[in-house]
Design goal:
single chain; mainly alpha; about 75% helix; about 0% strand
Length: about 180
């Protein structure tokens, strides 16, 4: 039991972020359903129910983006880039869901409802990882990852670079640059 608490405290910020992601996702699901109900009830006489999915989804995805940005990933700036990436992730999650449903229903002959129940957690994990590592990736995360890769490869110190160049028999030409003479 002690080990579990130790691991929890070690990864506490990430665990809290996952909990916030799940709560925000539940809110967004309720919001999306509510928006669709309002649109359908208000416009069903003039607009086809399938067409109403378009503005409903746009509003729900925009709501999700705002909530994830402000409460889960807490990024600043880059609104348009993040928003477009957010749509890419939603499209990827939708494509993943289609493929999984096809494999589970047509390939493995599962009931569509059971297949959907299996697809939801996979889609949630995919969405969280994609939003964390793609939609809301902070520039400092990229720099930190690059520095970690450099440290792991041992290329950070000048000596390692020189040693590697000697092993590979790489010689760089040196230039004799002389200072410019002053113009009188």
């Amino acid at each position: 039991m002690r080990r579990i608490f130790k691991k929890y405290y070690k990864h506490r910020p990430e665990v809290l972020k996952i909990i916030k992601f799940l709560v925000t996702g539940a809110w967004n699901t309720a919001f999306g359903v509510l928006v669709y109900i309002v649109l359908y009830e208000g416009l069903k006489q003039w607009v086809n129910y399938l067409v109403l999915l378009i503005p409903g989804n746009i509003l729900a995805i925009t709501n999700a983006y705002i909530c994830y940005k402000l409460f889960v990933f807490k990024t600043r700036g880059n609104i348009l880039r993040e928003y477009l990436r957010f749509y890419v992730v939603y499209g990827g999650a939708m494509l993943l869901g289609f493929v999984l449903m096809f494999v589970l229903v047509d390939g493995l002959k599962l009931n569509p409802v059971a297949a959907q129940v299996l697809c939801v957690p996979i889609s949630i994990v995919f969405s969280y990882c994609s939003h964390r590592n793609y939609s809301f990736r902070k520039p400092e995360d990229k720099v930190q990852e690059a520095e970690e890769r450099i440290q792991k490869s041992g290329a950070r110190s000048q000596n390692n670079t020189e040693d590697r160049n000697k092993k590979l028999n790489i010689q760089y030409p040196t230039r004799n640059i002389q200072p410019m003479k002053e113009i009188q």
